[in-house]
Amino acid sequence: MSSLNIEIRPITPPDVPAISALAREIWLATYPGIITQAQIDFMLEQRYGHERLYDDLEDAEKWLDQAFLDGRRIGFAFSEIYKGEFKLDKLYIHPDVQRKGVGGQLIAHVAERARKLDYPCVVLAVNKRNEKAIGSYKKYGFAVREAIVDDIGGGFVMDDYIMEKKL
Ligand SMILES: CC(C)(COP(=O)(O)OP(=O)(O)OC[C@H]1O[C@@H](n2cnc3c(N)ncnc32)[C@H](O)[C@@H]1OP(=O)(O)O)[C@@H](O)C(=O)NCCC(=O)NCCS
Fold it and tell me: The pTM is what?
């Protein structure tokens, strides 16, 4: 399959409302059946509230990338230094263009940044029941390192696998 000709650009402050809205759209297509609607709403506010995203943009150890196809914003990838490791923190592609290699291109973009910064691997956390995402990560060289249950407040937990891709 030939890859889509996407453009990857850094997210800037004026993009914040659109990224927040895109996150909501993708989450509502992804997480019902995996986590409750109450947890979806809680996590969207916690991670994609405008103020939170503005703060992320100010953080020197976070990189927020967005992808465009023919001028349309179709996804984003956030990466960061987390506990001394290089982490792919968020990877979300619009349902219209999933399974066309866009996730793979964003993973390659983030992995290249980690490599340039001399990190030996990229890590991520993924819900244990998010089988499509786990399949995608395995396809791009990630393997499960451990299983965790992380308290995120509000009475909710993240029931995740930590996966890593060696560079
Ligand atoms: C998971 C995700 C980031 C992968 O990006 P993508 O651009 O769709 O994936 P790619 O085309 O690069 O990779 C395709 C692989 O992903 C997996 N995959 C993606 N969509 C799938 C689907 N609808 N059904 C089954 N497997 C799927 C498969 O392993 C697939 O490989 P295959 O086509 O050879 O079987 C994207 O589908 C997405 O945003 N999903 C919803 C949000 C999400 O779960 N994000 C990850 C949170 S940790």
Answer: 0.97
Q: Flag whether 24 is in a domain.
A: yes
Query: Does the residue 106 lie in any domain?
Result: yes
pLDDT in tens, 59-98: 999 999 999 999 999 999 999 999 999 999 999 999 999 9
**What are the φ and ψ backbone dihedral angles of 90, each rounded to 5 degrees?**
-150, 135
Instruction: Measure 103 CA to ligand 1 centroid, in angstroms.
Output: 7
Would you state the pLDDT for residue 3? 86
Q: How many domains does the chain have?
A: 1
CA of 31 to the centre of ligand 1 (A): 14
pLDDT in tens, 40-59: 999 999 999 999 999 999 99
Residue 77 lies in a domain: yes
For residue 106 the two structure tokens come to 């964003």
Closest to 9 in 3D by CA, of 63, 56, 86: 63
Structural domain containing residue 40: 7-119
Mean of the per-residue pLDDT values of the chain: 97
Cα separation, 153 vs 37, in Å, equals 15
- C-alpha span between 63 and 102 (Å, rounded): 18
Instruction: Tell me which of 24, 89, 99 to substitute to probe ligand 1's pocket, judged by most ligand atoms within 8 Å of the beta carbon.
Output: 99
Taking residue 161's Cβ as centre, other Cβ atoms within 10 Å add up to: 20
